[in-house]
Structures are given as structure tokens and as C-alpha cells.
Amino acid sequence: MSAIISRGRLKLLSHRLRERLWVKPLVICLLSIVNVFVAKLADDTDLAQFMPAISADSIESLLSIMASSMLVIATFAVGSMVSAYASASSTATPRSFRLVIADDVSQNALSTFIGAFIFSVVALTAVKNDYFESAGLFTLFILMAAVFSIVILTFLRWVDRIARLGRLGMTIDVVEKATADALKRRRDAPTLQGVAKRSQDTVGNAVFATTVGYVQHVDIAVLQACAEKGQGRIVVTALPGTFAAPGQALARVSDSPDGNTAIDCEQVIQSFLIGDDRTFQEDPRFGLVVLSEIAGRALSPAVNDPGTAIDVIGTLVRLFVLWNDSGAQEEDGAPKYDRVEVPELALMDLFDDAFTAIARDGAGTVEVAVRLQKALRSLALVGDSAMRGAAAYHGRLALARTERALNLPEDVATVRAVAALAQSAALEQTG
């Protein structure tokens, strides 16, 4: 039960709810209904003698106009949002759909339009049935004016947003932000507040997945509780983003060197949330993969848009500079979960996710090949030894692909010259 109500699971659930398009409209609809009945409370006070008289007919007319117009605008909003979602999936990558649909401005706009429609229908029904007295009618008029103002401001803001929603540039920005947030969280807690994995030895009993899918969340707090209860240790072997299947170990548990354990393995399995898709929140590598996919699609013969690939390369450089930021927070003192060992992300794996596909698909495009070598040179200049090694390796690999793909000797010479500068930068920083 603790695996269900733990703080980590609740936080993950809140993020999932934000991605659901129906959540905010439902909340706003309920608030709209409540607001109508709040106006009735004014009739039970002495405010009527201080309030001007408002004709019920005028309120009915305004509510009728609002009810009819809000339904049309809500329908228009849904159609525009669906078109934007389809555009994001077709021009960028289907993996970006989850981020585009979670756009706060669009969700707020749709919620406001539907909420205003529900408010006007409920209020109109109440007014026609003489539910309000003079104070209630005036209060309802004030609420109606406030709803009108909110609708107008929301519509103006949403029109500006919908003009860009689903466009390739905005999709790249949204993916970059989600990836940056995930990278910062993992940079500040490289072992998820557990203990760094001490060795590659496979000590302990393996706990296997029971379903097929991707690990979306690892509840380290629950694993710590299991380890403390069983007086043992748990080594996580499947980080978020790992593809899990029966027969593949999620973790290894032990309470003695010989591998015996009293830890509840079923509880350990429940600590790993496995779903059909990878997510951005706790899987920084997924964001890099999605950006690489966007560049790969742009470099396909059907699209032939090297400018987008160059834009993505610049985005990747910003993300790796963020990952290497010397101002990153370090885990202070003893780890919070000292009985759970968690492997850190390998920088080489991050580079593979980001640059391998771009180097392969852009090998035959000289401007992309040159920009990729310059990007790797920049990372070699600002990074630590691990980043310099990864940049040098991928620079050599990209050059080898380019030499095979380009036919014009002058183009090959241009890329070689830039690659030589990148390799020399890596060597200079190492020296």
C-alpha cells in the first residue's frame, strides 16, 4: 500500500493528471456551478438595500448570448487544438504529442470556454425559474461580468498561443524545456538520493519484472523501507527509461554476502512503475532521443530541412552545457536512502542518444556535418574529462560517416578541417 500513496507516486500522479485534457475543464465546470449558487447567498443578507436593482430579463439576455457563443468558441478551440496536435505529431515526432497536449495555455482556454458555457446554462436556468431575488440577481450580474472579462482575456491570449502551438519551432522548445528539467533533477540527484552503485558485481537475488513496458518511475523511498524492514540492501538495475520484460532484473536484493534475503520481493516489484511509453519527467535520455528524432525527420529525403537539424544540434549543446554546469547542486552529507544503490547515468550513453542518429542521417549534408563537429568542439572546450572523451569519440565517428557519405573532395576537406579543430580542442583541454 505504501507504494501507492508514497510522495513520489503522488507527485508522478499529479504530473499525469496535468497531461489529461479533461481534468482542468472538469474542475472549472464544477467551480462554475458553485459560483451560480454562491450568488444565492446574497439573498440571505441585508445587501439588497445597498445594491441597485437589476432586471432579470437583461440578465437572461446576456446569459443566452454567453451560452450560445461559448459553445461555438469551445468547439472551435477543440478543432484548433486537434489540428495543432496532428501538426506536432507529423512535423516533429509522435513522441512529442504528450508535451504538446499538456500545454497550459490551451488547457486553460478550453477550460474557461467550457466553464463559461456551463455557468451561463446553469445561471440561465436558475433565473428563468425565479431562483434569485434582487441581491442574488445583482451578485449574479457581477459574476457574469467577471466571467466575460476572463473569457475575453483568455481568448486573446489563446489566439496568440494557438498560432504557434504544434509548429516545429515551438515543439522543439517544449521538448528542450522538458529535457532540461529532467537533466537538472538528475544532475542534482545523480543517484536519486540513494547510494552510488559500488561495483558491477551481480551480488544478491534478482527481482524480475512481471510485465512488459518501460520503467517510468522508481520509488526509492519504498525500496529504502523494504531494505530497512528486511535488514538488507537493494541495488537498482533498471533506471527510468529501461525496457522491462519478464526475465529481466529490475533490482537485486540481499542482506548478506551469500545473497540470502528477507526483503519482500513483491513490494520491490511494485516500487517500479512500468508503462507502455517512456516519459520525460524522470527519463532525461528520452528527451535527447526525441530531439534526435526531430532532427532525423528533418534530414529525411521527404523533408530535406537541414536547418531544423542544425537548430536541434544547438539545442543539444545547451542541454549538455546545463548538464555539465559547475554550479550544480551536490547531495549534502549522507545519502537519504543509504540502503539503496543506484547507478548514475553514463555520459557516453547521453551522447549516443543525442548525436549518433544525427551523425548518421546528416553525414551526407555538409552543413550539418560541419555544425555537428563545431558543436562537439564546443562541448570539448567547456566539459570535464568525461565530456571531452565523449565529444572526441563522437567527432571521430561522425567524421568517418561523413567521409563515406560525401562525394565531393572539397566538402570532405571542409569537414576534416573542422573535425581536426575539435579533436585538437579535446587534446588541449586534456593536457
UniProtKB/TrEMBL annotation:
InterPro entries, A to Z: DUF2254_membrane
Recorded coiled-coil stretches: none
Record keywords: Membrane, Transmembrane, Transmembrane helix
Membrane-crossing segments per the record: 21-42, 62-88, 109-127, 139-159
Pfam family, one: DUF2254
Name this protein carries in UniProt: DUF2254 domain-containing protein
Annotated source species: Thiorhodococcus minor
